[in-house]
């Protein structure tokens, strides 16, 4: 049962969109998936229709784990209308960055939190914050793999190199089993020279770690999230649905 962090040091990369719709595609392939929203902005939770913050959420369970009470993560897992399971975020997660600093074994709290439910799912995806703080470090320490989505432009490309520096440090010091699952290009426009140049540069530097599947620019993906749905429940014939299903198939082959 792999735990996969979806992370990148750049906003607007398609991180949350990828996390949500890749999980939905894998569910359609018969996999049981848990989504963990570790971003204080709670974009993933809201994209799944969870507008009002639940009493039990990732922060409430982290708080118990940090204080030594012992968490019950199952009570915080929310089942969406589409059948996806999600551990929703809380705005209070922003404060958890500081709270974790003084906790013994602070990099392992996500690990302790997820261990009781790991065997109940085929895959767990963690939607990480954009910054490399304690929440992201915790997510990477608890993960088997990291998946990097990015737009095919040069500023996001710099974000990949910056992230990989931190990745190497975490792998060396905190989680030797951590591996790069792959890099996926989002909002890809086949007509844009820059998109192709960035893809070629990534392939030169990371070889077969770059997914063959690209996620094409598709307004339906944004509309689906606005409605609190994944792309398959919003418009299963959209390019976005085709691309994420293809990405899911490729991901399973890699695993």
Question: Would you kindly provide a written description of the structure presented here, covering whatever features stand out?
Answer:
The protein has 11 helices and 7 strands. With 255 residues, it is of the alpha/beta class. It has a single domain (3-254), classed as P-loop containing nucleotide triphosphate hydrolases (Rossmann fold). A 7-stranded mixed sheet has the order 3-4-2-5-1-6-7, sandwiched between helices. Strand 3 and strand 4 form a beta hairpin. Helix 1 crosses helix 11 (239-254). It is globular and about 55 Å long. The model has no long low-confidence stretch (mean pLDDT 92).
- The helix/strand order is EHEHHEEHHEHEHEHHHH
Shape: globular
Largest pleated sheet: 7 strands, mixed
Could you estimate the helical fraction of the residues in percent? 40-55%
| Biggest sheet, spatial arrangement of strands | 3-4-2-5-1-6-7
CATH architecture: 3-Layer(aba) Sandwich
Q: Quick one: CATH class?
A: Alpha Beta
Total number of beta strands: 7
Low-confidence stretches: none
Q: In whole angstroms, how far apart are the ends?
A: 10 Å
Kindly give the count of domains. Answer: 1
Structural class: alpha/beta
Mean pLDDT rating:
92
- Assembly type of the shown chains? single chain
CATH-assigned fold name: Rossmann fold
Tally the helices: what do you get?
11
Strand content: 5-15%
Considering the protein shown, what is the CATH homologous superfamily? P-loop containing nucleotide triphosphate hydrolases
**Rg from C-alpha positions?**
17 Å
